[in-house]
Automatic annotation (TrEMBL):
Chain segments annotated as coiled-coil in the UniProt record: 37-71, 96-151
Keyword Disulfide bond set for record: no
Domain CT398-like coiled coil hairpin as annotated: residue spans: 14-191
Lineage of source species: Bacteria, Bacillati, Actinomycetota, Actinomycetes, Pseudonocardiales
Superkingdom of origin: Bacteria
Domain C4-type zinc ribbon: 203-237
Protein name in the entry: Uncharacterized protein
């Protein structure tokens, strides 16, 4: 293949642009904010789980408290009824004894229920504190997540802007190359290689390897328009004019 030496030199410009685009892509993939964002998302999820656990426990205790309050009200109502009967006229000794026994039983039952109610209310107070703490932790975690997301988005936007500029440069550089030379370049690039490098003394600028003296002697004897490739990596080897 033959190409104007100026066009061959254009592959070096294109390789430089592609290398910079590659670096921008690498920076985008390896932004520290990605790891920070993952950690912040995990923190938010953990905080949400803690809130749900505390809310569930608080709800269970509230239902227990409501149940006990109903039971206590039932006991009190029955106690008042029995007291009324006991204080009424026409109550025989046997019935009075039975009513008093039931009143004693109701009093003991009310005491047990009130003790249980007090214990549950104390636990509910503690769970309320846990719930407040969990909600505060969630709020802080969400603020941190928002801040990290904004930093990540800002960093990505900067990289996108830089790449947009390099993409425009690439379009210009590609347009300056003849079709066959560009096809050769893209073929090499498609293999994941550096597609072009300058001959720097006896070293290939693409793979940075020292080239064989016989190979160097041969290519130095070629016409400047002859396109040559590195014998080591296959890149377009651009010779100084």
């Amino acid at each position: 293949m033959r190409a104007d030496p100026k066009a061959q030199a254009g592959t070096l410009e294109l390789a430089g642009i592609d290398a910079e685009i590659g670096r921008l892509n690498h920076q985008r993939r390896t932004l520290s904010e990605h790891a920070e964002l993952e950690s912040a998302e995990s923190a938010v999820q953990e905080a949400k789980d803690a809130v749900v656990r505390a809310e569930t426990r608080a709800g269970d205790l509230d239902r227990d408290i409501a149940r006990i309050e109903r039971d206590v009200e039932g006991v009190r109502a029955r106690t008042e009824k029995d007291k009324g009967l006991l204080a009424g006229s026409g109550v025989g000794a046997k019935q009075a004894t039975e009513l008093q026994h039931e009143l004693d039983t109701l009093a003991r039952r009310q005491g047990v229920l009130e003790d249980e109610q007090l214990e549950i209310m104390e636990e509910r107070e503690a769970v309320g504190g846990e719930l407040d703490h969990a909600r505060a932790t969630l709020s802080e975690a969400e603020k941190s997540l928002t801040a990290v997301t904004e930093r990540r988005d800002s960093a990505v936007a900067d990289l996108d802007a830089a790449q947009a500029g390099r993409d425009r440069d690439r379009t210009t550089a590609v347009g300056a190359l003849p079709d066959d030379l560009l096809a050769d370049y893209e073929r090499l690039r498609g293999k994941g290689r550096v597609a072009a490098g300058a001959l720097d003394g006896s070293r290939c600028g693409a793979c940075r390897l020292e080239l064989d003296r016989t190979f160097l002697s041969r290519i130095r004897g070629l016409d400047a328009e002859e396109v040559v490739h590195c014998e080591e990596c296959g890149a377009i080897l651009v010779r100084a004019r």
